[in-house]
């Protein structure tokens, strides 16, 4: 590979991994250690790029997601069987017994197998100032970031109908919690009563924005002008896979829009695998995605022995 990690050998790869996050890099590392020629294609624009610190990753608790990706690329680069290109994938098609992956430069990468590990894209609540605090005082991953808000006044904002379940989870860390439905999400009377026993209340009014300054978030601004003081917010995004580049493969998807896979990451299409957040049950911690990548790599290596 070149000094910047770009692959220089244009012959057929054993595996092309699309996505260089925890799942993709973990899979690639295990594959090159199995002496499988593996190319990783990644735009390096993950949805967690704004997050300053990720948590729960053994030996790397508190590391930034971007640093974790860089460390993974450095480890991968030590193996002569590896290749890496910073690029965006535009298509995947079958050509006989092989697959052809094209990127935005027009390059075509031939491979025996493909691993889809591009994760998810997220649509956040449409609040004007939300992005200014996203990754610092506003978060989407409860398991990743709730510990830092233990016993502090926090909010949950979302428009999906699983807010009650998310609120129940958040109550492990703080019961000074208000759930804002933004006038959209449905919370049943039974769920509201159950949450009330934990001191959690539901606010069904529309939300106008969030408030804060250089020191951080200070509250939630309601459409009627009231500002409710909060020190942290958890949002419930609406997720999508962003797998338009793989439309020609005709993959099977779940009712929630995730890629259907078996226990080892095999999709409904031969020689195509998927791992990470784009597979059921959806968004997970980085360490879970890394584990899924390692498990799928083992399946790919085993399957290639019989082809």
What does this structure look like?
This protein starts with 12 loop residues before the first strand and ends with a helix. By secondary structure, it is α/β, with parallel strands linked by helices. It has helices spanning 22-33, 65-77, 130-133, 142-145, 163-170, 189-196, 286-304, and strands at residues 13-18, 38-42, 82-86, 89-95, 98-103, 108-116, 121-123, 138-139, 154-158, 177-180, 201-203, 207-213, 216-222, 227-229, 232-236, 238-240, 272-274. The chain is elongated and about 60 Å long. 22% of the residues lie in helices and 27% in strands.
* Portion in strands: 25-35%
What fraction, in percent, of the residue positions are helical? Answer: 10-25%
| pLDDT averaged over residues | 93
Number of helices: 7
Largest sheet, in brief, is: 7 strands, mixed
Annotation keywords:
307 residues; alpha/beta; 5-stranded parallel sheet; 7 helices; 17 strands; elongated
What's the short story on this structure?
This protein has 307 residues and is α/β, with parallel strands linked by helices. The protein has seven helices and 17 strands.
Write the layout of secondary structure elements.
Elements: E1 13-18, H1 22-33, E2 38-42, H2 65-77, E3 82-86, E4 89-95, E5 98-103, E6 108-116, E7 121-123, H3 130-133, E8 138-139, H4 142-145, E9 154-158, H5 163-170, E10 177-180, H6 189-196, E11 201-203, E12 207-213, E13 216-222, E14 227-229, E15 232-236, E16 238-240, E17 272-274, H7 286-304
Parallel strand pairs: 1-2, 1-6, 2-3, 6-17, 8-15, 9-10, 9-15, 10-11
Antiparallel strand pairs: 4-5, 5-6, 7-16, 12-13, 13-14
Helix pairs in contact: 1-2, 1-7
């Amino acid at each position: 590979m070149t000094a910047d990690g770009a692959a220089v050998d244009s012959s057929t790869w054993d595996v092309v991994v699309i996505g260089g996050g925890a799942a993709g890099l973990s899979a690639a590392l295990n594959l090159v250690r199995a002496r499988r020629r593996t190319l990783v294609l990644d735009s390096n624009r993950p949805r967690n790029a704004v997050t300053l610190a990720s948590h729960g990753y053994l030996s790397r608790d508190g590391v930034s997601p971007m640093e974790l990706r860089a460390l993974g690329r450095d480890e991968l680069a030590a193996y002569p069987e590896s290749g890496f290109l910073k690029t965006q994938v535009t298509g995947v098609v079958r050509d006989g017994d092989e697959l052809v992956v094209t990127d935005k430069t027009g390059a075509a990468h031939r491979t025996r197998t493909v691993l889809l590990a591009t994760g998810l894209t997220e649509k956040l609540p449409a609040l004007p100032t939300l992005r200014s605090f996203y990754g610092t005082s506003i978060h989407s991953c409860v398991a990743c970031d709730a510990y830092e808000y233990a016993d502090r006044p926090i909010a949950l904002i979302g428009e999906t109908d699983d807010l009650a379940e998310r609120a129940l989870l958040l109550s492990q860390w703080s019961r000074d919690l208000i759930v804002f439905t933004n006038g959209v999400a449905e919370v049943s009377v039974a769920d509201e009563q159950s949450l009330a026993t934990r001191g959690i209340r539901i606010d069904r009014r529309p939300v106008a924005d969030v408030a804060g300054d250089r020191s951080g978030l200070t509250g939630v601004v309601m459409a009627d002008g009231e500002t409710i003081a909060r020190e942290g917010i958890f949002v419930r995004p609406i997720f999508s896979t962003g797998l338009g580049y793989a439309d020609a493969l005709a993959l099977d998807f779940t009712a929630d829009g995730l890629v259907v896979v078996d226990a080892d990451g095999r999709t409904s299409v031969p020689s195509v695998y998927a791992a990470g957040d784009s597979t059921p049950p959806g968004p997970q911690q980085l360490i879970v995605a890394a584990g899924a990548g390692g498990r799928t790599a083992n399946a790919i290596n085993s399957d290639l022995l019989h082809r």
